[in-house]
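Re: adenosine-5'-triphosphate structure - here you go.
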Amino acid sequence: MEIQTSDMGLVARVAQLGKYYGDGERRVTALDDVSIGIRRGQFTAIMGPSGSGKSTLMHVMAGLDTPSEGRVWLGDDEITGLGDAALTKLRRRRIGFVFQAFNLIPTLDVRGNILLPFQLDGSAPTAEEQRRIDALLARLGLQDRVRHRPHELSGGQQQRVAIARALATRPDVIFADEPTGALDSRTGREVLGLLRSAVETSGQSIAMVTHDPIAASHADRILFLADGRIVADHGAMRPEEISSVMLQLERVQA
Ligand SMILES: Nc1ncnc2c1ncn2[C@@H]1O[C@H](COP(=O)(O)OP(=O)(O)OP(=O)(O)O)[C@@H](O)[C@H]1O
């Protein structure tokens, strides 16, 4: 297969990606010959049975983990083989993260948490970025909470702060790992609505790992993994259609 080295429509891409853990008989194949791109301006869900390689794929695409084989690009920039310092800089500048456990800094208030990516990058937000952050705080219903610390907020509010932090720097792509996993279903739906509206209103590109068919039904595209391979690549689907694919994959993988 020809490896394309440029594609303006993709914000992140991997080619012939393999990831192995351990040696000899104990070798585990987490990813096996995966070639896939995340499309710009789309909300992509990554689904699959437990152990199918979802988190590994996301971590390699986000430069949090390195592949055993194959190549990785962020936009047009190949990141395969970059060292830790270069990857850290690239993540800070070009990638946003939203995690199941929110990952806010407990000693910083809401504004401090949202400004953290700028501070880590050694830059203060410009006046325009500051205005954008204020607008984000208002849109996410956090304007009365800016001086609160994470432990003074509900789970849903904490995840909204994490989303505001991820959106504040206008990253090329946001990687979300089970963003609704720790939330009740109503709060989870609100969070998904916020991610969806970032795609609709700002063209934000988002890739989300999830187990939840309802969460995945908010996506424009759903990639299904099983045993470390991409086994299906669908446009938007209803929750019941997603559940039925997942049931089939769980049977195959088991
Ligand atoms: N650090 C590691 N050492 C050894 N094996 C690992 C490691 N990380 C992941 N694996 C294995 O790689 C495979 C893929 O794991 P991964 O976490 O990517 O799956 P997943 O689809 O995200 O699973 P889950 O839905 O349960 O979180 C699994 O078999 C897992 O046990």
